[in-house]
Amino acid sequence: MKFKPLLRDGAAGLMLLLAGCTSAPEAQAPALYAGDAVVSGTALRELAEPLFADDAGDTMGETRALLVLHDGRIVAERYAAGFGPEDRHLSWSVAKTVTALLIGVMVSDGRLSLDDPVPVPAWQHGADPRGAITLRQMLNMASGIMHKEQEGPLEQTDALRMLVGDGASDMARYAESKPLAHAPGAAFQYNSATTLILADMMTRLLTNSDDPRVRRDAMTRFIQQRFAEPVGIGSLVPEYDARGTLIAGAFMHMTARDYAKIGELIRHRGLARGRQIVSQRWIKFMTTPSPHREGYGGHLWLNRPGAERHLFVGEAPRDVVAAVGLRGQYVIVAPAQRLTIVRLGVTSDKQMPALRDALARIIRRYSKG
Q1: Is the pTM of the predicted complex or chain greater than 0.85?
Q2: Alpha-carbon distances of 342 from 192, 261, 264, rounded to whole Å
Q3: Of 69, 74, 211, 282, whose Cβ has the fewest other Cβ atoms within 10 Å?
Q4: What domains are there in the chain, each with its CATH number?
Q5: By mean pLDDT, which of 12-21, 52-61, 351-360 is the weakest?
């Protein structure tokens, strides 16, 4: 199974980070187009193969894995040469949705409450206005914390500085040191620093230790025992910074089939293998439009106005939701169609419209069925 941790190596490692995977041998996994009574295997082949065509790299980037599940059954599965069912793929921001699910477990445990202030020690001094930021506001990307995600040159963004620059050794501290740009809850701002703060918060709820190894081990045990094992996810490899904080907004690795289990967990309202992993109420929160961005819920994109650059607004049903990562990582859930789609690969910004069109066609085909 190919996997190389992408822990930061400064600017020299940026191209590896953007590629999102180690090199692979040139082998071709067999494609599956089983189809079912709703959409035939032939129709699925016609929908999926354009993503892997020789000229697709020019139009919609490199698709490394595509899975389509209908009623929980794999009806289509295709990999690019050099990739197969056992290979892990970098999550990018799909990890944010996984983090929200982990937080949902802690809320169910009574460790956290949506409308309580986030317990960040650095914000609890004097009249620091950041001390009023709630968990709900953080998950809705409305914390108000100053952060440049993609604005301006890439090397000057806060996201890159946090992941591979001067903030990389203690990402949460870098994120928690930022002042407010506006009042908490006043506006939507997509912000990877938010998810690192939440990861640090979860870790402090699991251990009082400042030892990086203890922090890392405590979070790893929690993820495995309360989430990965119950859901049946065996390939998950999360990454941590030097302080032992989960890099919750970007650096998780899983096989395509395990990403599909994340989608199925959301589709089944928190139920997996006969067990309620997170509450239905929590899934409802994640899939409910936030106050300042209809197309975003609780660390999850919703197919509504405001999500045009990420999903299929006007081209697929409004109840579609998705975990979305940089360079075209998708875990899509279409509840009415009983459908989960996983697409993993490398796509540039200018190629994204063509990729979204190809994925929307699959959803629409099931909508017709």
Answers
A1: yes
A2: 22, 10, 11
A3: 211
A4: 14-91+248-368 (3.40.710.10), 94-232 (3.40.710.10)
A5: 12-21
